[in-house]
Amino acid sequence: MADQKEPKPGPGASPGEVTALLLAWSAGDKEALQKLIPLVYSDLRKRAEGYLRKERSGHTLQPTALVNEAYLKLVDQKSVRWQNRAHFHAVAARAMREVLVDYARRRQAEKRGGAQTRISLDEAGPMAMPRSLDLLSLDMALARLATLDERQSKLVELRVFGGLTIDEAAHAMGISAATVSREWRHAEAWLHREMAGLTP
After folding, report:
1. What is residue 174's three-state secondary structure?
2. Which 3 state secondary structure label does DSSP give 82?
3. Contacts of 182 (CB under 8 A, 6+ apart)
4. CA distance 14 to 2
5. What are the residues whose beta carbons fall under 8 Å from the beta carbon of 15, sequence distance 6 or more?
6. Residue 175's pLDDT band (boundaries 50, 70, 90)?
């Protein structure tokens, strides 16, 4: 898959450096984790900023808080055997999804069923999706999609919550960019139909 683009590491990191540190961390080297964080933090923050830009106004979660909470989930992944940077970004996307969904649930509980946390998918891809989606409904729809097509559900998670491009998602999933583009179109169409009655 030489034509696929890996998610870029932070400034100063060589292509294999993050992977080497992930493997060392996975093998129990705690110092590797301390070296890893500065290399991936700026990229995770950029992705968090990109995601939060899609949020509707009134969202109070800041990119730094999102990255920090996702980071805490990442370092708690004791059972994960890290493979490479692409694997890391896939797990990071899942961590960000969990943080954002937990945040949306707390806000909904505080408001006693009031306004829901809504996100815009305008920037996520070229197909016509609803202009905004309730985050909790999207999470439930993705769980349903995973029972039908786990790969498509993972792809949406990577692109929407991880901020990966088509090429980056292709690398993370170990498939061609053409396959990712096709699967992305199918997943978007399915979500559009699934959530048509749940969004304005």
Report:
1. coil
2. coil
3. none
4. 17
5. 6, 9
6. very high
159/18 Cα distance (integer angstroms): 21
The CA–CA distances, whole Å, from 95 to 40, 70, 105, 148, 181 equal: 14, 5, 15, 22, 24
- Domain residue extents for the chain: 17-195
Look at the alpha carbons of 101, 130, 180, 162 in this order and tell me if their dihedral is positive or negative.
negative
Q: Which residue has the higher pLDDT, 84 or 13?
A: 84
Closest by CA position to 54, among listed 105, 107, 130: 130
pLDDT given for residue 38 in this prediction? 82
pLDDT band at 41 (very low <50, low <70, confident <90, very high): confident
- The single-letter code of the amino acid at 138 is L
Given a contact cutoff of 8 angstroms between Cβ atoms, the answer to whether 52 and 59 are in contact is: yes
177 or 36, which is more confident: 177
Closest C-alpha among 80, 90, 159, 79 to residue 119? 159
pTM over 0.70? The answer is no
Q: Which residue has the tokens 């984790």?
A: 33
Q: What share of the chain is helix, strand, coil (3-state, %, to 5)?
A: 65, 0, 35
User: Residues of 158-169 as b/e, b for ≥16 C-beta within 10 angstroms?
Assistant: bbbbbbbebbbb
